[in-house]
Specification:
about 350 residues, alpha/beta, Herpes Virus-1, Rossmann fold, 2 domains, seven-stranded mixed beta sheet, three-stranded antiparallel beta sheet, 10 helices, 10 strands, U-box domain-containing protein
């Protein structure tokens, strides 16, 4: 899904009088040319000649050109589709509540997982996405993650001009003893960010030999992944040229072997973070099998919610239709009182 150039319209789609794309083309019988209806009518009020050749007209009749109109409508539809696709590509990742005008629109949820060992910067990365450049001023607990932390975002552009895109980001614990609580996030994620510490080459090996392997075993067969080399700021400041060369070679070999993009980022400074996430999201949306799965999962979820609402409304109606115990008691009291009064009156 790349930004597509919109080609100029064919010359036959342009009215020779207005020089604009026609909406209601008509064919002037004598000169065999098509014009916009209102423009030709206005021309013929003031002229008795062809707008194209300027030769006198013996026959001023014209007919609707339905074939040309159909072709123009098809071109305009393609133009609108390309325009919407290009506009979506300008999306940004936002946190907080979605705009209120989108509340009734269908949603698609993309599940992403941050995978990597301890101290590679997964939580710092999630925090930067959530708070942006202000994340360094937000005081949060920086101890090791002991359970999957969930952070939610949304895209500020509609997908296919109708879907609200919700991003669920799971920060998976990097310690092996918490592995059992993470299996569900391997199975359900649509995209994975495989993090390594650029200053620790062993973390790159563990990312490939453990985290990527676990993703292949437990995850979906069509899951998308990106290799993320974090702490590029420390890498540039503290690592010598020999270490840099070796690290780059191993990282590129890992990424090329498994056909995945590679990003060098700084979760602390924010280097390349937005472009990295946009790349992963676009890869997921370009993956037809994965996108179809996301849509089907969303449809099942919506149907389940609708069924629950229907059951809840039915139960509420039944409860409201049943008389309360106090009203039954009051009716009995009224009957006894009424009977007593009747006997006393007699």
């Amino acid at each position: 899904m790349t930004n597509q150039q919109i080609s100029p319209p064919p010359r036959d789609f342009l009215c020779p009088i207005t020089r604009e794309i026609m909406q209601n083309p008509v064919l002037l019988i004598e000169d065999g040319r098509s014009y916009e209806l209102y423009a030709l009518q206005r021309w013929l009020r003031d002229h008795n000649s062809s707008p194209m050749t300027n030769k006198p007209l013996r026959d001023r009749r014209f007919v609707h050109n339905y074939n040309l109109k159909s072709a123009i409508e098809e071109y305009n539809a393609q133009l609108e589709t390309l325009s919407l696709a290009n506009r979506f590509l300008s999306f940004n990742i936002r946190s907080g509540r979605i705009p209120s005008e989108w509340n009734n629109k269908p949603t698609l949820k993309i599940r992403l997982s941050l995978l990597g060992g301890s101290n590679v910067g997964k939580t710092t990365l999630a925090r930067y996405l959530q708070y942006g450049v202000q994340s360094s001023f937000v005081h949060l607990n920086t101890s090791a993650t002991v359970g999957p932390d969930l952070v939610f975002f949304y895209l500020d552009q509609l997908f296919e001009n109708k879907y609200v895109m919700i991003i669920q980001l799971s920060d998976i614990p990097g310690m092996e003893r918490y592995e059992s609580c993470c299996d569900n996030h391997f199975r359900n994620c649509h995209g994975a960010l495989l993090l390594s510490d650029s200053t620790e080459i062993d973390s790159l090996e563990r990312t490939e030999l453990y985290w990527y392997k676990q993703l292949q075993i437990k995850g979906k067969e069509y899951v998308e992944a990106i290799l993320v080399c974090n702490k590029i700021d420390l890498f540039e400041a503290n690592c010598d040229a020999k270490y840099r060369r070796i690290f780059f070679q191993r990282a590129e070999h890992f990424a090329s072997t498994h056909n995945m993009p590679i990003y060098h980022i700084s979760a602390l400074r924010g280097d390349n973070i937005q472009s990295m996430f946009k790349q992963l999201i676009l890869r997921i949306l370009q993956n037809n099998a994965l996108l179809q799965h996301i849509k089907e999962t969303n449809l099942v979820h919506e149907q389940t919610l609708n069924n629950k609402d229907s059951v809840r409304r039915t139960s509420s109606i039944q409860l409201s239709a049943q008389p309360s115990a106090s009203s039954i008691q009051n009716d009995d009291d009224d009957d006894r009182t009424s009977s007593g009064d009747c006997c006393k009156f007699a």
